[in-house]
Design a protein that fits this description.
- By secondary structure, the protein is of the alpha+beta class.
- It is 31% helix and 20% strand.
- A seven-stranded mixed beta sheet has the order 2-1-7-6-5-4-3.
């Protein structure tokens, strides 16, 4: 009888020893700890840059990058997408009424700022030739923006003129001359 109990006991001891004496689950997070940094923390200097990396490399979009960081929206725009982003220039942010941006980047206004930034994002890729006069496009915040195409082919989104377009690995960026504000 002792011999019959010896073998299972030996197997159990070997199993516990091979696990380091502890049971572990690599898919769990300890209580009270927050998950690590998201997709934006991945360093990749070889691939085509994503939307956030393009904005980081543009001196004309430092205010947009600061707003993305304040709204905790950087990780969302570094994900696979595809996204279309209407990216206001620093000059566009400067044209907002005095104190507006300072107020929006306060921690207590993070949700409001994020709503405004999501109003600048479309799910899917819309190239310049895809814009149709009078078309409404749904934004990431659930609202919509209106497209106007002039006779000369220039495109405006809610009155903000597209002044440049840059492709990114996870979508496309249309540089605009105004900040789009939801109504």
């Amino acid at each position: 009888m002792k011999k019959l109990l010896y073998l299972p006991s030996l197997l159990l001891a070997l199993t516990v020893w091979s696990c380091g004496g502890q049971a572990s689950d690599s898919n769990t997070t300890a209580v009270g700890t927050s998950p690590g940094p998201g997709q934006s923390a991945v360093l990749d200097n070889v691939s085509n840059p994503n939307i956030v990396q393009v904005a980081l490399g543009s001196s004309d979009h430092s205010t947009l990058v600061a707003a993305l960081q304040a709204a905790n929206y950087v990780d969302a725009l570094t994900n696979v997408g595809p996204f279309t982003v209407f990216a206001p220039t620093n000059t566009a942010f400067d044209a907002l009424p005095a104190g507006t941006l300072d107020d929006l980047v306060k921690p207590e206004n993070q949700r409001k700022l994020r709503d405004i930034l999501e109003y600048h994002v479309l799910l899917g890729v819309y190239k310049p030739g895809d814009f149709v006069n009078g078309r409404n496009l749904g934004t990431a915040d659930g609202r919509s923006v209106s497209v106007a195409v002039a006779e000369d082919g220039s495109v405006t989104i809610n009155g903000a003129k597209i002044i440049g377009t840059v492709s990114a690995s996870n979508g496309i960026i249309h540089v605009v001359d105004q900040v789009l504000l939801p109504k």
